[in-house]
Design brief:
Chain A: Keywords: Phosphoprotein. Chain A: Pfam families: Response_reg. The structure holds 2 protein chains of 2 kinds. By secondary structure, chain A is an alpha/beta fold. Chain A has a domain of 86 residues: Rossmann fold (3-Layer(aba) Sandwich). Helices cover 41% and strands 16% of the residues of chain A. Chain A has 6 helices and 5 strands. Chain A has a 5-stranded parallel β-sheet with strand order 2-1-3-4-5. In chain A, strand 4, helix 5 and strand 5 form a beta-alpha-beta unit. In chain B, 66% of the residues lie in helices and 10% in strands. Chain B has 11 helices and 7 strands. Among the domains of chain B are: 120 residues, no CATH class; 150 residues, Heat Shock Protein 90, CATH 3.30.565. In chain B, helix 6 packs parallel to helix 11. Classes of the chains: A alpha/beta, B alpha+beta. At the A-B interface, helix 1 of A face helix 5 and helix 6 of B.
Chain lengths: 140, 427
C-alpha cells in the first residue's frame, strides 16, 4: 500500500494524539502527521493548504489525505469545524477522507454526524479500525 | 139576544131590595157583606199581580194571572149584587156571572192540569234540604280541595328540598372535582419533576461514563505502549502489567454498561406502543447469540400459541430476550444440556412472558431484591456485570409491568414478566 501524503489528528487530548500518532507511525501509514488540539487550529491549517499558501519546502506543511477529528473540543468543536471545512474548495476536499473519531455514542452525535460526508469511528483507535479505513478508501 | 144587549143596563125589573122587603138589617148585611167581599176580592188580584211581577223566577206566572182575573171577576159579581139591591141590572149581573164562571172553570181546569208540574216544584223545605246537601257537598269539596292543596304544597316542598339536595350534592361534587384536579395537577407536576430528575440522572451517568472513557482508553493505550517499549521485563513487572490490564478491562466494562443503561433510558422515553411478534424477535436474538447457543449445545423451546405478541417496542423486546437468554445459558448447570422454555400468554388484565431454564438456580432467600439491582451479582464464577436484569426490570417497569422470579437451587429458574393490557396509546 502506498503511503499517504499526510494525516491530521485533531483532538484536545494530548495523550490521545500521542497514542494515535504512535499507532499510525508504527503502521507506517504516512511520513507526515500533524496534531491539533482544536478545530480552529486545524481549520486555519487546512485553509492555508487549500489556498496553496504555504512553504512547500517546510516539512510541517503538507496535503493531508486522512483526517481524524474529535467532536468535543474547546474553542471550536468537531461539528463546527466540519461546517467550515465543507466550504473549502471541493477539488481540495475530494482527496481527503474525514473520519470523526469520538468516544461519544450519544444518539444526538451519531445523528448529527450523518449530515456530513465523514466516517464515524469510536475510540479507541485500533490497528483494525485504521486498516479498515485504509482498505476502504486507499486500496490500490 | 140583540134586545138583551140593548137593555143590558135597563132596569125594567124590580130592585132586589124588594126581596129583602127593604128590611134595613137584611139590606145592610147583604150590601155590607158584598162590599167587604168585593173590596177583599179586588185587593187580592193586585197583590197576586204584584207578586207575579216581582217574582221574575215564577215558572207558572199565567196561573197567578188566571187566579187574579178569576178573583177580580168574583169581586165584580159582588159589586153587581150590591147594585142590584137598588138598581135591577140583572142582565149585566148574569153576564158578569157567566164571565166569572168561564174564568173560574178555566182556572180550575188549568190548575188541575198544572197540578203535577206544580207538585214537582220543590218546596222550601226541599230546597232548604237540597241547599243543605249542597252546602255539605261544597264543604266536602272545600275539604278535599284543602287536602289537595296541602298535598300539593307538600309535594312542592319535597321538590324544593330535593332540588336543594341535588344542588348541594352537585356543589359537593364540583368541589370534589376541583380538589381532584388540583391533586392531579400536583401529581402531573411531580411526575414531570421525576421525569426530569430521571433524565438529569441519565444525562449525568452518560456524561460521567463518557468523560471517563477517554482517559481509560488512554491508560489502556499507554499500558500497551509501555509493554512494547520495555525490553525484556521481569516476572514481577509482567504480573503488575497483567493486574493493570485486568483493572483497565474491569473499568472499561463498567463504563460500557453504564453507558448502555443510560442510553436505554434515554431511548425508552420516546418509545411508541406497538405489538411486537415474539417469534420474530426471538429469531433475531437467536441469530445474535447463535455462537453461544451452539457452544452450549442448548435447546430452546417456545410456546407462544396463546399470545404471539408483546405490547412493547421491538428494541425493548430484543433487549429483554437477549438478557434473559444469555443469563439462562450463562448460569447453566454444567452436568446437563441447557434447556430453556419460553412461554407467553394472557390473564384477565395482563400479558405474561416466562423464561424457564434448567440451570444452577438462585438461592432467593434475601436475594430477590438484590437480583434486579444495578451492578449486583449473585454469582461470580462467570463473566457478568450485573446490568442485564436491571435493564430487563427497568424496561418492564417502563411499560407499567413487573418481573418476578422463582427458583430452586440446582433445578432451575423461571423469570416471569407481566405487561398490562392497554387499548390505547395514552403515555
Amino acid at each position: 500500500m502506498r503511503k499517504l501524503t499526510g494525516v491530521l489528528l485533531i483532538d484536545d487530548d494530548e495523550t490521545t494524539n500521542f497514542l494515535n500518532r504512535r499507532l499510525l507511525e508504527r503502521l507506517g501509514v504516512t511520513e507526515n502527521i500533524r496534531t491539533f488540539v482544536n478545530g480552529k487550529q486545524a481549520f486555519d491549517y487546512l485553509y492555508n493548504i487549500s489556498n496553496n499558501n504555504y512553504d512547500t519546502t517546510n516539512k510541517d506543511y503538507f496535503q493531508p489525505q486522512l483526517i481524524f477529528l474529535d467532536i468535543n473540543m474547546p474553542v471550536m468543536d468537531g461539528f463546527e469545524m466540519l461546517d467550515l471545512y465543507e466550504r473549502l474548495n471541493a477539488d481540495f476536499r475530494k482527496n481527503i477522507v474525514m473520519a470523526v473519531l469520538t468516544s461519544s455514542t450519544h444518539p444526538q452525535d451519531t445523528e448529527t454526524s450523518k449530515k456530513y460526508a465523514a466516517e464515524y469511528l469510536t475510540k479507541p483507535l485500533s490497528t483494525e479500525k485504521v486498516s479498515n479505513l485504509l482498505n476502504k478508501y486507499f486500496a490500490d | 139576544m140583540n134586545e138583551f144587549f140593548k137593555k143590558i143596563v135597563e132596569s125594567d125589573f124590580m130592585p132586589h131590595g124588594h126581596c129583602y122587603f127593604w128590611k134595613t138589617e137584611i139590606v145592610a148585611m147583604n150590601v155590607g157583606g158584598d162590599s167587604l167581599i168585593m173590596l177583599a176580592y179586588y185587593s187580592i188580584p193586585f197583590m197576586l199581580f204584584y207578586f207575579a211581577k216581582k217574582r221574575q223566577d215564577l215558572t207558572h206566572k199565567y196561573v197567578f194571572l188566571l187566579f187574579g182575573a178569576f178573583i177580580l171577576a168574583c169581586g165584580t159579581t159582588h159589586l153587581i149584587d150590591m147594585i142590584t139591591v137598588w138598581v135591577p141590572i140583572y142582565r149585566l149581573g148574569g153576564l158578569v156571572k157567566v164571565v166569572t164562571a168561564i174564568l173560574s172553570v178555566g182556572t180550575a181546569i188549568v190548575l188541575w192540569r198544572s197540578l203535577p208540574v206544580l207538585l214537582s216544584i220543590p218546596s222550601q223545605a226541599q230546597l232548604t234540604a237540597a241547599n243543605k246537601q249542597l252546602q255539605v257537598e261544597i264543604a266536602e269539596r272545600e275539604r278535599v280541595q284543602e287536602a289537595l292543596r296541602v298535598v300539593n304544597e307538600e309535594l312542592e316542598m319535597r321538590v324544593r328540598e330535593r332540588t336543594e339536595e341535588l344542588y348541594s350534592t352537585n356543589q359537593k361534587l364540583e368541589k370534589e372535582i376541583a380538589v381532584r384536579m388540583v391533586a392531579e395537577k400536583t401529581l402531573q407536576r411531580k411526575n414531570r419533576e421525576l421525569e426530569r430528575s430521571n433524565r438529569d440522572l441519565d444525562n449525568f451517568v452518560y456524561c460521567a461514563s463518557h468523560d471517563l472513557k477517554a482517559p481509560i482508553f488512554n491508560i489502556e493505550g499507554l499500558v500497551n505502549v509501555l509493554k512494547e517499549e520495555m525490553v525484556a521485563p521481569d516476572e514481577n513487572i509482567n504480573q503488575l502489567l497483567t493486574h493493570l490490564d485486568k483493572s483497565v478491562a474491569q473499568i472499561n466494562r463498567t463504563i460500557h454498561d453504564l453507558t448502555a443503561v443510560s442510553i436505554f433510558q434515554n431511548e425508552s422515553e420516546t418509545h411508541l406502543l406497538e405489538q411486537v411478534n415474539l417469534h420474530e424477535v426471538l429469531q433475531e436474538v437467536k441469530v445474535s447469540i447463535a455462537a453461544t447457543i451452539e457452544r452450549n449445545n442448548a435447546v430452546l423451546d417456545t410456546d407462544f400459541m396463546a399470545q404471539a405478541t408483546l405490547p412493547i417496542n421491538r428494541k425493548d423486546a430484543k433487549s429483554i430476550l437477549y438478557n434473559l437468554l444469555t443469563n439462562a445459558l450463562k448460569y447453566k448447570e454444567p452436568s446437563r444440556k441447557p434447556y430453556v422454555k419460553l412461554t407467553s400468554g394472557f390473564k384477565e388484565n395482563y400479558i405474561f412472558l416466562s423464561v424457564t431454564d434448567n440451570g444452577i438456580g438462585i438461592d432467593l432467600r434475601g436475594n430477590e431484591e438484590k437480583l434486579f439491582k444495578l451492578f449486583k451479582r449473585l454469582h461470580d464464577h462467570v463473566e457478568g456485570s450485573g446490568v442485564g436484569l436491571f435493564i430487563v426490570k427497568r424496561i418492564v417497569e417502563n411499560y407499567g409491568g413487573s418481573i418476578t422470579v422463582a427458583s430452586v437451587v440446582g433445578e432451575g429458574t423461571t423469570f416471569t414478566l407481566r405487561f398490562p393490557i392497554v387499548d390505547t396509546i395514552d403515555i
